[in-house]
């Protein structure tokens, strides 16, 4: 399967083949309907209590901003509950990955927008982080 | 704390175990240096460092980097704020190098109020990075002497890295963990959101101490000095994430219009005294709108002036 998938960055990738199109469609339809997924192509839903962080108007990947209203609603879209209030509550209910709320999630690779996170997981493309970021993490774990 | 060498005057005092005081500079909207100087001068010698805000409340004001340089020229140590709202990772890195080159030695990283809170709600918000990414990136530049991309710098920037946290906004149980994440990402000091809810602050600090965060970062409690009950209502209703209990509004409102300013100062003094006693607190961060005199008064009444001498002064 991974061989069929394209390992190159999206910009260089060849025109989507039938299988890739199908994967993208299945992911998009299912995740959009269940989680209001925004197809960032680098899914961390399991780390965020199954609350998609890209629904946050500030695209925060590491927890809520300081502007959450006292009643738990979003400062930008008051009719919406804060994505991170839902993430915190959701993560407490999960049997697994609860400690992921303490993890630092890397910066978004905006090139992956509207691509399939399943494909990117299979190809390893979603593991990309800027070299300086990776080196800092390596130094931290070794020290 | 693993690094004993002081990067800034503020850092020197914190390393020395002194109780520090910082204040927020009134934002200004002029193209000349005088308005910044006029806002900053009353704070000279009364606080240890002054925050230059980054287009606070999503309203454009004079550049926080230009303001920081003007403060340095006056002999006042700046803390330069960086928000994620207006700049992508390329622009942020350029400015992080820039502030260091101009002699600013403290930065503080934050998400930033949303554009919908400002007077240009139609603009394009950026939010390329979040505040934790920004903190880590500032440390990569400084400690690794490279850009985020890994490309080498000819010399690293030199600054103490700060962050903010709001103990009062939901999900409150997660806030101490988020604080811990920020320290993990690279924050060396924290300035909290404005505290009116002392019990909530105490609970937050207790959790921070239990998590060991106060062993790794200095925490400064944020205190606002209101000038009227109207100012408190404004904070409660118009500024997202500020918890203003009704009894606090009542306390200032019941003083009457003429005595409101004094009631506001007394309120702030009481909050400052309570925060000062909390385990894990290293200082205060004072804010007031057009209230340099109020800030000076609070610092004086708390017996915190004169401020201790520092060997390493800005610039």
Task: Give an overview of the whole structure.
The complex is a heterodimer of chains A (143) and B (315). Chain A has 143 residues and is mostly helical. Helices cover 34% and strands 0% of the residues of chain A. Chain A contains four helices and no strands. In chain B, 40% of the residues lie in helices and 15% in strands. Chain B is built from twelve helices and eight strands. Chain B has helices at residues 9-15, 34-40, 64-74, 89-101, 131-144, 175-185, 198-210, 213-216, 229-238, 246-253, 260-276, 292-301, and strands at 20-24, 49-52, 78-83, 106-110, 160-165, 189-194, 218-224, 281-287. In chain B, strands 1-2-3-4-5-6-7-8 form an eight-stranded parallel barrel, surrounded by six helices. In chain B, helix 6 (175-185) crosses helix 7, helix 10 packs across helix 11 and helix 11 (260-276) packs across helix 12. Chain B starts with 8 loop residues before the first helix and ends in a 14-residue tail after the last helix. The model of chain B has no long low-confidence stretch (mean pLDDT 95). The chains are: A mainly alpha (143), B alpha/beta (315). The A-B interface holds A 57-72, 75-76, 82, 84-85, 88-89, 101-102, 104-108, 110, 130-136, 139 and B 84-85, 89, 110-111, 113-114, 116-117, 125, 127-133, 136-137, 139-140, 143-144, 146-151, 164-166, 169-171, 173-174, 177-178, 180-181, 184-185, 193, 240-241, 243.
* Portion of residues within helices of chain A: 25-40%
Approximately how much helix is present in the residues of chain B?
Answer: 25-40%
Quaternary: heterodimer
Q: What is the structural class of chain B?
A: alpha/beta
